Amino acid sequence: MKISQGLTLLPNVDAPATGSQINKTLKETNQSFGQVLNQALSDVNNLQREAGNAVNKMVTGEAADLHEVMVAVEKARTSFDLLMEVRNKAIDVYRELMRMQV
To answer: Domain count of the chain?
Structure first.
């Protein structure tokens, strides 16, 4: 599933993704997890930049439509929140791995 500027999410977001679904998605795109994460960071950065530009245009009077500005800001906020949750889960997984006894 594509969202906005190419931000890619796993299909079937209603159900938790299994490891095999994630591997299948990564294989279909021929990208490593690091590349997917890097692309997501880039997409979030672009959305943040677009939201900043929209706000600047609104302040200077160039943009007359408040709705478009609010949509750009909400897209940026939502994508950033998603990225932060992915980061939090990755940290949780790392901590859990460090707790395992070998």
So the answer is: 1
Per-position DSSP letters for 69-93, written without gaps between them: HHHHHHHHHHHHHHHHHHHHHHHHH
Residue in the structure block whose two tokens are 């021929």: 30
Instruction: Domain of residue 28: give its range.
Output: 2-99
Distance CA 2, CA 9 (A): 6
Q: What angle do CA 90, 91, 96 make, to 5 degrees?
A: 100
CA angle, 10 as apex, 70 and 86 as ends, to 5°? 70
Q: Which amino acid is it at 29? A: T
Stated pTM of the model: 0.66
Give, as one character, the DSSP assignment of residue 46.
H
Report how many helices (DSSP H) and strands (DSSP E) the chain contains, helices first.
3, 2
pLDDT in tens, 9-49: 544 444 555 566 666 666 777 778 788 889 999 999 999 99
User: How many CB atoms are located within 10 Å of the residue 66 CB?
Assistant: 10
